[in-house]
Amino acid sequence: MIRTSSQDSGRQGVLAGYLEERLRERLPPHLWPHLEREVSVPGLAREKKWDLGLVYPAGSSLPKKPRLLISLKSILKNPSGSWPNRLDDLVGEVSSVQLLFPEVVVGYVVVLDYGAPTKRRGGVYRPPQGNELDPVYARFKQGLAALAQRRPPLWPQGLVEGCWVLEIDTRRAPLLLRPEEAVAEGEAFLDALVRELRRREPLLFLDQGQKPL
Fold first, then answer.
1. Burial 174-188 (b: 16+ CB within 10 A, else e)
2. What is the largest CA-CA distance in the chain?
3. For every one of its 213 residues, what pLDDT tens digit does the chain have, with 9 covering 90 and above?
4. 94: part of which helix (H) or strand (E)?
5. 3-class DSSP state of 86
6. Which residues are CB-contacts of 92 (< 8 A; sequence separation ≥ 6)?
């Protein structure tokens, strides 16, 4: 992902594949074919491709509908100028789909680079010194936490059901900071999404030969 151009639509493919694999372990087998990467979903403003989505038929005569969607983002350059835009973009893309499908479960995953080059005077990008990006990312994570609390009775559009922040530092090896904690947080993130999906769409978790009570 780090070595791939920011214009490459498959930049997040490895991370999306990891999440897809971990989600399959939590979902009934009959839903596996409907969990796809780069899935197109209609929104109120326009159709958008989501990095990972469970889009399942609502009925034999009804169109398919998104049940669970995950958006993958990263901040790998100019964090000070990028983080407010990331939060604004999140609210916009989520609101558009929630207005059509208010019951959809949405997760947000973002990679933060503590070694990301920052724009200086004259438009020159230079690597950060020490921990200078700590307060920048702290503000971003605070804003993200405020948005990641969509639970009843708090149902406004623009909120999400969960987020996972992956922190890296491209100035060092290994890149991933706190690897054990990062993995545990990712598992908890996926557990929370599936738990919320089960609460809203319990019939999805019935065996195909099982009748609802």
1. ebeeeeeebeeebee
2. 67
3. 666 655 555 667 889 999 999 999 999 999 999 999 999 998 888 899 999 999 988 665 667 899 999 999 999 999 988 999 999 999 999 999 999 999 999 999 999 999 999 877 777 888 888 999 999 999 999 999 999 999 888 888 999 999 999 999 999 888 999 999 999 999 999 999 999 999 999 999 987 554 544
4. helix 79-100
5. helix
6. 158
Q: What is the token pair recorded at 102? A: 């208010």
Whole-structure pTM value: 0.90
Measured CA to CA in angstroms, residue 151 lies from 15, 66, 88, 89 at distances of 26, 18, 20, 21
Contact 96, 41 (CB under 8 A): no
Helix (H), strand (E), coil (C) string for 107-148: EEEEEEECCCCEECHHHCEECCCCCCCHHHHHHHHHHHHHHC
Nearest C-alpha neighbor of 86 from the set 74, 104, 100, 77: 74
